[in-house]
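Example S7 (structure tokens).
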């Protein structure tokens, strides 16, 4: 008889979700960024331990599968991490880990922190090292004007300050 027509015991089967995709870019992190990734991994492992102690049903099996997938993802991110200490960067050149103040064409001042992909949060001014704005700024010096190519058109930005916290 076809397996499609047999009732299987759902309690004996586990669920394995496909892995989350990894970025093709090197995983640059600051020392704090690595610590944050490791903390996320440990928190997810603790979540999994709690889930495994709960009674099994489909929802709990799905939650376990999600936690296991997240752990595999975070383990890979930690394993691929390349730690770059911002304190070791040249102080007058925009680089990974820098906080940069720019002046826009319409005289708005904007502050960006150039961070790794896992720490990026554009709403909070933390931009990925691989974002178009970071790529435009990296390697430039104080007082330079750079062209930021964006979908709505290009914009010139003047670098007013560079800091490495």
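Recovered sequence:
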């Amino acid at each position: 008889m076809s397996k499609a027509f047999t009732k299987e015991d759902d309690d004996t089967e586990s669920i394995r979700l496909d892995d989350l995709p990894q970025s093709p870019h090197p995983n640059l992190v600051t020392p704090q960024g690595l610590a944050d990734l490791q903390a996320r991994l440990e928190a997810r492992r603790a979540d999994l331990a709690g889930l495994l102690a709960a009674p099994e049903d489909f929802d709990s099996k799905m939650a376990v599968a999600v936690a296991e997938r997240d752990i595999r993802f975070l383990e890979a991110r930690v394993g691929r991490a390349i730690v770059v200490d911002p304190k070791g960067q040249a102080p007058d050149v925009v680089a990974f880990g820098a906080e940069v103040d720019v002046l826009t064409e319409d005289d708005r001042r904007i502050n960006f922190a150039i961070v790794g992909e896992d720490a990026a949060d554009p709403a909070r001014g933390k931009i990925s090292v691989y974002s178009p704005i970071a790529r435009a700024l990296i390697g430039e010096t104080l007082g330079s004007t750079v062209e930021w190519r964006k979908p709505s058109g290009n914009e010139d930005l003047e670098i007013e300050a560079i800091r490495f916290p």
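Notes on this example. The domain at 86-163 is CATH 3.10.50.30 (Chitinase A; domain 3).
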